[in-house]
Records
---
Amino acid sequence: MKRILLLIIIFLTGFNSFSQPITVSTTTYTVPQLVQDVLFAPTTGSASCVGTISNITWSTGNTGTNGSYNGIGYFTNSNPAFPLSSGVILTTGDVTGTPGPNDYELGDAADVQWPGDQDLFDYMDGLGIDPNLLDYNDATILEFDFTPLTTTMSFDFLFASEEYGVYQCDYSDAFAFFLTNLTAGTPTTNLALIPTTTVPISVVTIRDGAYYSGGGVNCGSSHAGYFGNFNGGAAAPGSATNFNGETVLMTASSNVIPNNVYHIKLVIADRNDNQFDSAVFLGGGSFDIGTPNIAGTGSEFGGFTDFTGLNSVCSSASLVVEAGSAPITGATYAWTLDGNPVGTNSFTYTITQAGVYGVTITYPGGCQQTDSMTVQYRPSLALGTPNDLTQCSAPFNLMQNTPVIQNGVSNPVTYHHTLANAQQQFGAIGNAGNYNGTDGEIIYASVENFATGCIETTQFTLHIDLSLCIVPPIPGTPPDMVQYETTPNSGVSIFNFTPQTAFVYGSNPVSDFTVTYYPTLADANAGTNPITNITAFQNTISPQRIYAVLSDNAHPTNFTVTSFQLIIVALPNVSISGPVAVCSGDSATITFTGTPNATANYTFNGNPAQIPLGPSGTNTFISPPLLLQATFNLVSVTITTAAGTTTQSESGSVVVNITYPPSINTPTDYVVCDDSLDNDALNCNFDLTTKITEITSDPTVQVDFFETATSGSPIPNPSSYCNIVSGNQEIFVRVYDPTTPACYSNT
């Protein structure tokens, strides 16, 4: 018997080691510390960065014949069946009675009953869901003011009660989390609701009918998915708390307005009596009123917190970020770029370069919060720097700067009155080539980067200089210069601009003006990098535009730019091809391939001839029947283009040899005796190959047999030919050299 008792004791000892109850203290923290250092702090004892917490008040307990009762306390837990590790308890009884196991009823004697709460009564009574409600007793209340930093607030909690089991079909003790926006003065709301409903949480609204142990009819379950543990019966010894049951861990939350002052009242009370206590367990460190995050502002970046990858910033964009949704009164802001201090004590910061940006917010109480974000910029086009346009008077040709701005790309350029319009490519100046601008006016140029989708901008200024009011010279229009390349396939030609000069002068006196040539429009307008070797300008680009400046000798800044193109035409070429040999008496097909529309010059057995190549660049010559060897030699190729007529020597030849058909003899008839009674019977006694020695004595030739003179294919088995023709069958013979099958003899 003692041995059995010992095993039971050992078992219970081992069971309890894995089912520890919670521990409760009313002295570890004062009530204000429970708010500031337990509900708000992420770890025990750390300072909380929560803006302003004020007006912390509380109410609980009474002193009777059985001593003082305190319904507010701090708890810690290591029992894995209970989902909170630490936090604050609000109970309708003495908080020291809440630790498990669940081995006695939690309820206070009548002499220690303390008042209820009128707000809670008015709220519950106004819902009309408890017709038997008379009053509330033993109310424990914790309330305070706080200022949220972001747009939401939340905290974790669970509800536990002695009324689970026997009394879970009657309306139970009540609790509420009353939230009020003091700044806005909006109506108070209750956060202690079953998720996605407007139903207050209680024993009767969250219950599992499987644990009903009262008398009468079982009222069944209600929102059973939110019921957590029933701690009665066999579960009682291992219960973390001394309550019969509890809900799952839930979260109370609400949308809030940053920097508004809110008041929250956490209250729980006994219904109609002071028996069968209930409690709310609040998760330590779960009271979340937000952390300011760096985010973009404005219509383009408002609320964005990521500026990397696909969200990277265009180089022309103006990126202003802010540390949270609104400035915090009394806080200071310290900004950094790649870890180095930048900026001043400002709630916003204007970003102008890529990097890692951080901000440290120091609150009036001394605690700090930090946040950071990485900003990347998209690669920009290498736009050229436009020139300020200076003229005697308007109008201005803004498009003079287009090639300068494009700097080698073809992306269109638009011109605008304001930077904002340029950044949006909105309201472009329509008459950019003849714009009636004013002195000192800034013109904003806009170019879209098709690779990144960014719009990039630059700017230049218009100037009106009355000293320039001289009639600009009117140059003539020089023609384009078209020349052949110097050597075949070189792509190079040497140009002499001297003939162009007369065209540029036009009707202007040569003594009063000077003509200068430039490789780019920018150089022409700036008067830099003139072309000095105008008589032997080596060009490799076709077409290449050359800019000619006609300037007034008396007023060098009074000039006009015109232009022409250098066009290089490839020299013509031709090649010849044809057969090595033809049969005596046949024609040879000679193919000429080369530059389209050129003419090939050649000789045929020493006689000169020509053949046009046509648009395709190919043509063929079919010779007369050849009995002797023929020779075709290329001489040259001639073409006429815009560059003139040119003839280029060519080499290449085709020698056509003559082959002759082999000699052939007519063989004697092949006669066999057909002794069949049916004259039409198949006779396969013919071995045509026996006639080969009669046909030819040359063992190198090929002999084929055909049934008709026009047969396309020879008889496949001449050694066992089957004759199905009644009477005589004529066989046709072809003899040819296998190397030249087209040259053959027939019999």
---
Amino acid sequence: MKQFLLVLSFISFAFISNAQQDVSTAIKLLELNKTELGLTDEDLVNSIITDSYFNKYAATQMVYLQQSYLGLPVYNIMQVMAFRDQKPVSVSGKRIAGIQQKTTDIPLAPSITPEQAIRTAFFAKKISIPVLPKAISKGTKLDFGKLGISRENVTTELMWVPSHNGKEIRMAWQVYVVPVHSSDYWLIRVDAQTNKLIGENNLTVYCNWNSTDHQHSTACLGSDAVASLNDKTGKANIPASPTLVGSATYLVIPFPAESRLHPGGTPAVVTNPWLLAGGNAATLGWHNDGTSDYLTTRGNNVFAQEDRDNSNSTFGLPAFSSTGPDPLSFEFTPNFTVTPTQTSPVPNQQFNTTNLFYWNNIIHDLTYLYGFDEAAGNFQNSNMGRGGTGNDFVVADAQDAGGTNNANFSTPPDGQSGRMQMYLWNGNPQRDGDADNGVMVHEYGHGISTRLTGGPSNSSCLGNAEQMGEGWSDYYTLIYTQDWANSTLTTGFTNPRGIGTYLQGQGPTGQGIRTQRYCTNFAINNKVFLAILPSIPHDRGEIWCATLWDMTWNIINQVGSINPDLFNAAGAGGNSIALKLVIMGEKLQ
């Protein structure tokens, strides 16, 4: 068994090496600096480089090192390092010492099979247990396919799982399953000796947008389709090569307005909004996925579709351009006094799906400029040879029927699509999460913080009780929807910001869903760090976002300027400096 594990270690290292061109550079840096890093030769042998890339935004080589033993990874034991001029400038994380002694009493061969672990995991989640085929080995994982019950391939991976702050170690099979009729993306760990569940985490972050709850239809194609389509995704019958849509217009709630009720939020036509970022952030525009153009709300970064039947399909019904193949037009005039799902005579659903598509692209392009690019694990179908894995555009579900008064975001590792699910809100008339830009930014923010923390290949680092994901997501909402062009050095003090005001039926100055509005005025927001923090993630997140918002305005006043155009990432201004620091911090932690 020991020989098998050593072979497994070699296979996994070779697999990762082929996927990451910078691994050889990382190995050299680790060898060169092992004394300063406190790493022994044995430590280096018992390690897996999960990710490594050159972070051009700080001119550093990022190295994400996971502890292993006998070829098996140690769950979530990571060291994150940044090197400049071949020297470490940032090191975070630690290793479990004496792992050999702590595993002495554990047989090297698992007592249960991966199939048994799958059955145990499925039983715990009340998933019907199918007949399991022979697995296909893919690196360190065994792949069983979708089995007719999962939207992603069901996999198992053998690993060491620490508990009690690393004082105890167990061997476990980790089972990955994404139930078809669920928003969950489960990682379930089953003890490889006793066949008992010892841990689980969900890669879907369920947000709390309903202020009263503090616990965690098929549309017609219609006459608007004007091109020859080969499926309901709206892919044109064109050669399989990038041709790029040259121009497109969208009727949306335009950047940076938080909602239609906020200043500048009246629905308006925008033309070629990918030009706001330009360069590598928008090489393919918004309607090409590296192979073909689309006449719908689909492209390299996102596929926005309605999900009124809660099917969780990867390819549902998007909004269709009324012109084509080039230019495209997504100008659907809404009526907010009638149901958001109406498609005719008022094209509300098409408007909301278009707005969802527009804002997902805005977030992608803007965050790209500040460091969330291909190498860092962003969401794109084609990475165009710039690093990362690709094939992971965001699947954005508009008007999802899986719930109400909420929203969520799922973030599997780089190479697997993220999923944003936006729900309708109860009311008369109903309000649609797809028309609240702040909510969409918040949800996408979970994808950003999850992919950046611990490296793009690890989506498990923000599953603990004290992680600040809700704070980062609120922060992204604030900074992306702030009207910087009309802000002054005192705006942070005089203009309190609520979160989720539109969906709560409030105006822009409303309280929103948090306990306090975000403001640097201590009389309005008096959140402080305490020895005992609230146990609810959103309440903890409020403290963290308040801290980051204070930091942003402190820097603005320190440098004495605001960048009026956040898309000009090179522009002077404390807001741009703060956003760069936040994204860099997520990479380094």
---
Amino acid sequence: MSRSMFIGAALAIVSLITLAPAAAWAQPRDAASPPGRAQQPLPDPPEAARSDSELEEALALWEDLIHYYRVAQHDLAVGAGNALMALDLNHSDLLRVVEELSPYEDYDRTLRQATELAGEPGQVAAQMLELVGGARLGLARQGDRIRGAIDRLDRGLRHRLSAQQQLRRAGEYSAPQLLEIITGDGSRDRELAPYVIDAMVEVGRPIVAPLAEALPALAPAPRRSVAEVLGRIGYPMALPYLKAEIDREDADADTRRVMQRAFDSIVEETSTPRRATAADLFLRLAEDFYAQRGSLILQPNESYNLMWVYAPDTGLVFKQIPTPVFHDAMAMRTARRALQLNPNISAALSLWVSANFRRENNLPDGEDDPSYGNEMRSPHYYATLAGPRHLQPVLQRALRDRDAQLALDAIAALDSTATADSLLNLDGRIQPLLAALNYPDRRVRFDAAIAIATARPSESFEGGQRVIPVLAEAVREAGELYAVVLGPDNEAINNASQVLADAGEFRTLRADSVDVVAAQVSEAPGVDLVVINSPFAQAESAVANVRHNYKMMGAPIVVLAHAGEDVSLRRSFEDEDHVIVVDGESEPEELASAIREAVGSIIGSTLSADEAEAYASHALALLHEVKIGSNPAFDADDARAALLAALDDSREIIALTAADSLARFDGERIQQAIATRAISDERGEDMQVRFLNALATSARMHGNHLSPVQLRELVAMVNEASPGNLADAAAEAHGALNLPTSNVIDSITR
């Protein structure tokens, strides 16, 4: 794609993800929220206050709870705690009992110590601490209490310190009303403004996101005040927002100077490059959100976290984002800002697509993400619109992060949009689809191989030799596992084989080197595991040789370390994927566990029966096409062993399709295998008819390769079968094999 075409495509996508959803970002979720007031959850249930007698009951239970914990009568403490929780007090009443009526001022220390108790006593103490903390936090977030704290800021030092503490508890929920004071022009606003600025700094990190979001829409004077606050707090999240304001063409000199001073003060405390553009900084922030940095989420244990939106007519309002997708929603938002500032940042578009897929994948069932408006289209829509150039990094990110679902999403989008060259990215620096052929999750491996084969590349390419073995793996039944065992001598090989026997059912291929076992591997339908029981130098060499054998290169490797070599081997293979080093002198169960872990790492999540059959059918169809079309990019002969094994597959459609494909392969072993099922298969007449049809196809294409015994059995079938489909199919195979005319005459004249 030329540079002009790329810029045009990028601008089209940017317009879709930045302009179309603008209304969704700007509008509060609750249209009835008053201007300037954040939409807030009701932290206290709207129930009537409890009567004095009910509060007395609650107080008695609370005092019993604390007393019994202190005198180590834990069963009585549990009873009091459960009874108190059953009263279901609202936040105000609970805190009145705990902090106003109760004589126990140091109750929190008692409960914290009690949380260390085993069983229900510790659980009840933890629940009570959580209830009290939630009540305190819920009340702190109430709008009238926040306003009351703001009004106390200029009433002397004691009131100011108390108010600041209350605002710190309210955290980001205090932002809308604090910002109202900064932007207001009333006399009371002007009186409070200096104190509010200090209070914002005291609130600290929780208030950075809402203030940064408001920054671009503020008038110059409040914008300078907010920039001062952000600079004094010093949290690097503010950097891209400040830089964007510094670069605004309409910024006056005073405002730009304040912004620059705030920006520089934060940069001095971080590793941020001074020459980075605002778009670069937004992309950097988006990457941090995507990486799910813990410092970027304020309430990781709550069900929702807040995304802030500012508009002059509504002030600061928030959207409640389900916590499991908060990081992804914010990564999309900040990547979007990067694209608004510079549509040519390809990495920002790829990141936006990645985060959008992951957001959809992680959104809890039944939950709504208000950051993604109804006018937005599916993640797959935007991914396919972005095209292969931007999808390759999405797949690369998925493989790096071991995000199997994202990898499947990316492969599906690539499969829908890419030509063979762009799918494989043969002229690019990264080739994630080829890397996906060795990914631990089998769905990813299978989808990658299917996508590559479906693209029908016209010539061979590096890494392409893995496609047919992976398709062959998809054909196989999951229960049949093959393992290669390598060792310098028979004793080492036998010991490693015994470890395998303890770990599960494996068909073993045994040898003293990769070169020797390669012939066995070529005849196997696949390799699921390699076990190496050799001294250090030989083990290193064996691992390297395994990785150069295209049928084994994706298999996990377990190295049984000899005495004193486990540390050196672990260091040697610390950067190797799917290499597990185990002390060879460990207990048998520990060794068996390592084997099972290694196999699990490459097999991935279990396929349902329907999924397995769908993959097998798709893979067989592609193998059939590759063989018929003689595609030079692939060697269909690599699937022979898997197809032969599939003849006995319990899934009849798989066995029959394998026979149809094998009929195109030349070779005595193949034709005789088909004939064996055609003559004596016990799965019913319909199966025999289909196998006989495949035998006839093989004979027409490759001549007669049946053994004398099979020929006699086929003739007997022709002579003895009752009239019908089986007899007709047997006769057709007989004719295709060009057997002696005497057989026909005998059939006519007997």
